[in-house]
Automatic annotation (TrEMBL):
Residues of the RsdA/BaiN/AoA(So)-like insert domain: 193-349
Gene3D superfamilies, per the entry: FAD/NAD(P)-binding domain (3.50.50.60), HI0933 insert domain-like (1.10.8.260), Translation factors (2.40.30.10)
Descriptive protein name: Flavoprotein, HI0933 family
Needed co-factor(s): FAD
Keywords associated with the record: FAD, Flavoprotein
Keyword Flavoprotein appears in the UniProt entry: yes
Residue span, RsdA/BaiN/AoA(So)-like Rossmann fold-like domain: 3-401
Record has Flavoprotein as a keyword: yes
Amino acid sequence: MAKVIVVGAGPSGMMAAISASKNNHEVILIDRNEELGKKLKVTGGGRCNITNNRDIEDFFEKVVTNKKFLYSSFYTFTNMNLLSYLEQNGLEYKVEDFNDHKVYTKSDKSEEVIDMLRHDLTKNKVKILLNKKVVDIIVENDSVIGVKIEDGEKLLADKVIISTGGKSYPHTGSDGMMYEILRKYNHTITKIYPALTPITVKEGWIKNLQGISMQNVEISCKIKKKKIAIIGDMLFAHFGLTGPAVLKFSSHINKYIDENELELNIDFLPNISVDEISNTIRENPNKNVLNNLKGILPQNFLKEVFSILELTDKKANELTKSDENKIVESIKNMKLTCNGSKGIKTSQVTCGGISVKEINSSNMESKIINNLFFTGEVIDIDAETGGYNLQIAFSTGYLAGISV
């Protein structure tokens, strides 16, 4: 039996503590906050998108950074294993097949997940220390032997699992402090970028579209001749773009826009051709153009587009071919210049962290410091929205816990 300290009581830390305790280890779970799962509590707008119901093989295409690193974690503790675990612990969930197969609690309350994990921690005799900020790890002869607490207290252990998260949602305690601690001990911390975050747009007229929401659009760009395209819902904001499709898209372009501007193309009707839109515009020659387009796009959007194009609404038979082409181009290929993002404080996930080259993916142990393990967002791994990041947290936490 080993003494194990887990630093960070988010989903990966709680799962690591539970799986380690079930292997008959003495486990201490430490968190700087006054409660367990502070960030978990606010995920999914408080609904908590626990995982996704797709085949586990499909998860890899949803991972943006270092997907190969996750093979052992995902296959050791799959989404089906997680759902079985929820069932065994009495948590009812639902699968929203209409919503990208996302899995939520039946009650839409993230607190139920936290309560279930807390109950399992208690049942397995995990000692929980809250309001305790770890300010250093204790290393001797290239092996970790414990941690230092802010008040000067030292806690010794045979194994230490770091589950402190990244730099997103800093108000929940994940301020990236652990990166600096690990850098002292020769761990490489890759550059930190915001992931799953709203993006900013250079064009000033974007403010005129503020608050307009669009469904099933395609956002695309080219980076070094590679096309990146995401289809989904989006929302115009005074600063640029947000919404599910934009958040996903941001994770694929975040490293590029950190230093460069990027031309975006938005197709608001990806399933309707240019010719079909032209035919719709001309469908009723004696009706106004806005009227003809009413069935396929929101009127408030179309009115703003006409205003931006400096066009007045007129009957279809009075519209010039040149103006028709402008309307169609704005619908099928609106060009915008992305000049950044809203930053790490508004991002749902951190891109960057401890280099995966320095972690053994088969057990989550450091290749630099013996008996030191890592889980979740503190590692340089991130994925699109849809429950994939939480599955990464649970899978890596479980693997680290059974490996100590």
